[in-house]
Amino acid sequence: VNVGCVPKKVMWNTAVHAEFIHDHADYGFETPGVKFSWRTIKEKRDAYVRRLNDIYESNVKKAQIDIIRGYGKFTAGPEPTIEVDGKKYTAPHILIATGGRPAVPSDSEIPGASLGMTSDGFFDLEELPRRSVIVGAGYIAVEMAGILSTLGSKSSLLIRQDKVM
């Protein structure tokens, strides 16, 4: 939600607005001089995500749910128990939020890999890149390529192909 779904939807909606502006003349609207500011949408998007995080945390506290941060593992025993950083916690309900991260290959595995970024890095961009190459053909890659292209980045989508069609 924090580094994917919500900020990606903000960027998708930004691209939708860009498409609408592109088509305004066909519907009789004159929109000369319309400019897009990556910095503005980044600041507003990031503030929106921070606001949502505060709301989520407040709701968790109101529900009297304890948040325990650290590396945990379930232990053997009759009751649901988890051990986090050497301390054991028992509760009727335990939720593990994994906080997954993408795997990034090393330069020895894929030459030049360190020059790229994951989809998380997209949200850290301080300005719209003039050119972008998105590797992959999953829905996130296709959405990122569409967003970047619509907002003005000359974008290419690289797709692995195992056989000639």
Automatic annotation (TrEMBL):
Claim: Cytoplasm is one of the keywords in the record: yes
UniProt superkingdom: Eukaryota
Catalyzed reaction equations: 2 glutathione + NADP(+) = glutathione disulfide + NADPH + H(+)
Keywords, in A-Z order: Cytoplasm, Disulfide bond, Mitochondrion, NADP, Oxidoreductase, Redox-active center
InterPro entries documented for this protein: FAD/NAD-bd_sf, FAD/NAD-binding_dom, GSHR/TRXR-like
Subcellular location: Cytoplasm; Mitochondrion
Domain FAD/NAD(P)-binding: 1-165
A single MF term (Gene Ontology): flavin adenine dinucleotide binding
CC per GO annotation: cytosol; mitochondrion
GO BP terms in the entry: cell redox homeostasis; cellular response to oxidative stress; glutathione metabolic process
Record keyword Oxidoreductase present: yes
Cofactor(s) this protein requires: FAD
Protein family (similarity comment): Belongs to the class-I pyridine nucleotide-disulfide oxidoreductase family.
Designated name of the protein: GSHR protein
